[in-house]
Amino acid sequence: MIRATLISLLALAPAAAPAAGLDEWLARLARAEASFEAECAALREREPPPGAVWLRLGPSGVEIAPADAASAEAAAFWAEAALGARAAALALYGQAEGEGLALRPVMIETGAGGVSVHDGAALSRGDACDALRRMTPALGGAAPGGNPFGAAREKAAAGLAAPVGGSAEARLESAPPEGATARGPDGVTAEIGADAEGAPLLAVSVSGDARPGETEVRIYAPGDPFRPAATLPLTILPGAAPAPAATGGALAPGGTAEGVLPLGGEARLSVEVTEPGRFAFASAPGADLTGRIETADGRPISADDDSGGGYGFRFSAELQPGRYFLSLRHCCGGGGHFSVISSPE
Length: 345
Hints:
- Helix content is about 25%, strand content about 40%.
- It has about 350 residues and is an alpha+beta fold.
């Protein structure tokens, strides 16, 4: 009887108490959305080259595979666009990978009829910006459709939500029986308590190593610690992005830089651009390196893995005056010597 009564009484009240870290997550989401919309606006001004490409995730992150040799320009175009989609997926889902993409790589085709994107679940036709929107939920392993940023905000406001490394409280519609306990999944601590006015609360604390996504908190009746009497939904939101690796030197446009990477380590070389232009970045043959150029605040611009000689990277990017960072990693968690060069095109 106690168990049946508990099931009927427990539910989250419509208004949840403020969550520690939730405002910060919402602010990060707003910045990510603004950056995403800027990427869209820039793509609308460009004409995607014709061709068919496959987008997938591999050991080095987002990878673009042209369907044939004639699609090389299209692959370069969509590889650059995919960086914006990946940044949005990281803000939305805390990851840019998942079963959805692992099982269903995204195919993008540009031709006389415009742009079409097939993510394994649905076919979408539109322009380059529509393709970027289509890529974002696929990269995060989520179902396509709608505005992912708005959906994320609505989900966080609709129930109990806490970011990784944060906490949250939500009022319960009714007080559970004395002695009832709450348990969360791995990385989540849950407790039943009361606020200053005596109203029943469910409080959760999310550890820094918890995985973002949909889960639940289970409520157990007194004397029955094995069969949950009720479950309450919990959304674990992405935490703050990890601090970037320490800067490891500088690379002048038209110059070279050398160094040594520890196993699994990353080097970030500052790049100071004084005149606008298109610049090429490449690693010397002999090291399986990946390279990524990003803005000073961490927004990715372009990246590559194996387009250079000897499994190194080679890519180019349009840069305005300012400071950028070139991030370098050895393949597969390796380390060792690196040598890179930058040259204006």
